[in-house]
Design goal:
Blueprint: H1 3-14, H2 21-33, E1 40-43, H3 50-58, E2 64-69, H4 72-82, E3 90-94, H5 102-107, E4 113-117, H6 124-129, H7 146-150, H8 158-169, E5 175-182, H9 183-195, E6 200-209, H10 210-214, E7 219-227, E8 235-240, E9 247-254, E10 257-259, H11 262-267, E11 280-281, H12 288-291, E12 292-296, E13 299-302, E14 307-308, E15 315-319, H13 321-325, E16 334-337, H14 349-353, H15 355-363, H16 365-369, E17 395-400, E18 408-411, E19 420-421, E20 425-430, H17 433-443, H18 446-453, H19 466-469, H20 474-481
Parallel strand pairs: 1-2, 1-4, 2-3, 4-5, 6-8, 15-19
Antiparallel strand pairs: 5-7, 6-7, 8-9, 9-10, 11-20, 12-13, 12-16, 13-14, 15-16, 17-18, 17-20
Helix pairs in contact: 2-3, 8-9
Length: 496
């Protein structure tokens, strides 16, 4: 392994983005201006020590500094930086964050505490891709259930776990947590703290330019949380830059979620109700090279560039997120190999009904059998997910979860077959063109968009989620817009 490859691999595993000295100084000066007067300062993942050096120079009140990092070379570099600063009590710990008893570390430190830093910008799945071990103890700490615990929702940022753990350790302390992180991580940490009644007296997010400081494209912030004797209001102000003068939003807790725009929500709160129409996720197969094919006349070509001699029995028109977002859903560019009608079906039936298709699957079994997601374990060979009777409804009203705009497309059947959407899309199955057209018009209305916008954080990787969609009360929306006929809604509705 070359040194460059090793360095890249380690950067992935440890999410190693060193904080520029200038940014560390600016943050410490802002904290001082904001009233921070720590007697103890801890940087749990200090790297080369930008925050330690800045804190020593900024906080005259601080009596004790602790810097910890898993990389011994970084600590040696930091030690060289500290020596010229004169007599100062700094304890350097060469330790893995996940192996440190942080409760014990914080127990005897003089208060107020300042816990500051820049924890790893990496997810547990990214670490798994490089066979890394820099992970917290395995647990479903967000308490997801069923498939959510096995698929995307169980993937989390390592810094999310770290920040929640640190906050938990200082519940009975006079402490300030100030951490650089992705905005999505900050929101999850705040949400977790609110849901679990942490003694969080105050919280705020200060948006920073990650491209400028770290040369990465990510929405990022400085998250500041202050602990207190009793929980404060469940409100988090968001500011542009390191200033409390440029407030751009207020995040508020609502039931089990967060409101992105309180004002818009209050305006359309009456639309938050029953999920009359069941929202579904698109088909999931995790092997596009094999399972998605383009049509070339009377032939099909897979993502490996191979011409495929297979029957059409198990092939269905497929629309991707980009097609749905752009309303490009007339003629499919791709066809999906749908191996099951329902989750759990025995796929061996393909061998009898479509022997060429079975031979094709067997020829590419190395790729299909190596799919990493645990949802395929102990399932019929070549299984897929996001499948059921609903997937074969003739019409769908669908939206992309990835694109940063709200647009619903009415997806029609094609050549006598129901069209599928991929797993980055959500949809309502519909029995007719009339039903799909009416639902799409309702959901594309300015009223519906404004209501949904109150829950959507547009800097997220997948801003539109099924949880947001499930909040829309289609009946209340129809009544608001004066639509008195919506086919196939819940039978208790006054119009049907």
């Amino acid at each position: 392994m070359t040194s460059r490859v090793k360095k890249n691999r380690e950067r992935i595993e440890f999410g190693d983005f060193q904080t520029p000295d200038s940014l560390a100084r600016e943050i410490c000066e802002f904290l001082l201006f904001d009233g921070a007067r720590p007697e103890s300062m801890v940087e749990p993942t200090c790297g080369k020590g930008g925050f330690i050096i800045a804190s020593i120079k900024t906080f005259n009140s601080c009596k004790k500094f602790i810097a910890a990092d898993i990389n011994r070379e970084y600590l040696e570099i930091l030690h060289e930086k500290i020596c010229p600063l004169g007599p100062v009590e700094v304890e350097l710990k060469n330790a893995d964050f996940f192996g440190v008893d942080w409760h014990h570390i914080f127990a005897d430190l003089p208060e107020p505490l300042l816990i500051i830093g820049n924890p790893p910008w990496v997810t547990n799945s990214q670490i798994g891709c490089v066979s890394g071990v820099n992970l917290p103890p395995k647990s479903n700490f967000q308490n997801f259930r069923g498939l959510d615990a096995l698929t995307g929702k169980a993937n989390f940022d390592i810094s999310e776990w770290m920040l929640i753990h640190l906050l938990d350790c200082v519940q009975d302390k006079d402490a300030v947590l100030a951490m650089l992180c992705k905005t999505s991580v900050a929101r999850k940490v705040i949400r977790y703290a609110w849901q679990n009644n942490f003694r969080l007296a105050q919280s705020a997010m200060y948006i920073i330019d990650a491209k400028q400081h770290f040369n990465i494209s990510a929405a990022a912030c400085l998250l500041i949380c202050k602990t207190g004797d009793v929980p404060g209001t469940k409100l988090c102000c968001v500011y542009r830059g390191l200033s409390s003068d440029n407030k751009i939003a207020s995040i508020e807790r609502h039931n089990t979620g967060l409101l992105a725009d309180t004002e818009k929500y209050r305006k359309w709160e009456h639309l938050d109700g029953i999920e009359h129409c069941k929202w579904r996720s698109g088909v999931k197969h995790d092997c596009a090279q094999v399972m998605e094919l383009s049509c070339e006349g009377d032939r099909f070509r897979n993502g490996l560039g191979e011409i495929c001699e297979i029957e059409t029995d198990f092939l269905y028109p497929l629309f991707k997120s980009s097609n749905v977002a752009k309303n490009d859903v007339s003629i499919p560019k791709l066809w999906a190999l749908i191996t099951q009608k329902n989750i759990g079906d025995d796929t061996a039936i393909i061998k009898k009904q479509a022997p060429k298709t079975w031979a094709y699957l067997m020829a590419h079994s190395d790729l299909l059998d190596s799919r990493k997601s645990s949802i395929y374990r102990k399932r019929s060979r070549f299984s897929i997910f996001g499948i059921g009777d609903y997937a074969f409804a003739p019409w769908k009203v669908s939206i992309s979860g990835l694109y940063k705009k709200i647009h619903f497309s009415a997806v029609a059947p094609y050549m006598g077959k129901p069209s599928m959407v991929d797993d980055t899309c959500y949809y309502i199955p519909c029995d007719s063109m009339e039903e799909a057209t009416i639902l799409a018009e309702l959901l594309n209305s300015d009223v519906a968009k404004e209501f949904m916008d109150s829950f959507i954080f547009w800097d997220s990787k997948r801003p539109i989620t099924i949880d947001v969609l499930r909040r829309i009360d289609i009946a209340a929306l129809a009544e608001e817009l004066g639509v008195n006929k919506v086919p196939n809604l819940h039978p208790s509705l006054p119009f049907k």
